[in-house]
């Protein structure tokens, strides 16, 4: 079963709320990008108590594109996030995994399009999901990089039961390629909110086939 997860990267809560309202009745999970200009050059809206009411209705995951993901674990969990995904390029990944496990949430790791698979391999047996960036992390609206499909295939072959998320440049052309390679979750941003804002439900259904 392929799950489409809307990805939201915004600097203010009003813009974020507008996107959440567009998708919340059509999906189970919502993906929030978190950047603080430490690991990648961008900053997003990061006032976590504002999410408390929202997380009661949907399953929220945070994509932590930050240098110190461990410091985000407690405040995110306290405000309802149930899946935390940190970048393997970050600091103290072992501490992040340990802390997230202690808070009893799903634990994931991501790695950037420019990183080698070996960076994440030591953790694949102990995490709940892996997220493969098919663009360079930090900004939405980029073009899908087909070269990343080999990473998806390799992880799927070695860990066939591990959920694989793909994030970046996903649309009706690239989604089938990612799925054929082994992806089970599609994180989708521009294709939903910029290309199909008036046909969100239809776009989600098409991508999940």
TrEMBL record:
Isomerase listed as a keyword: yes
Q: Which domain of life is it from?
A: Bacteria
Any coiled-coil ranges, and where?
none
List UniProt keywords, sorted A-Z: Isomerase, Metal-binding
Q: What is this protein called?
A: Ribulose-phosphate 3-epimerase
Give GO MF terms, alphabetically.
metal ion binding; racemase and epimerase activity, acting on carbohydrates and derivatives
Q: Is Isomerase found in the keyword set?
A: yes
PANTHER family xref list: RIBULOSE-5-PHOSPHATE-3-EPIMERASE (PTHR11749)
Query: What InterPro entries does the record point to?
Result: Aldolase_TIM, Ribul_P_3_epim-like, RibuloseP-bd_barrel
Single GO biological process annotation from the record = carbohydrate metabolic process
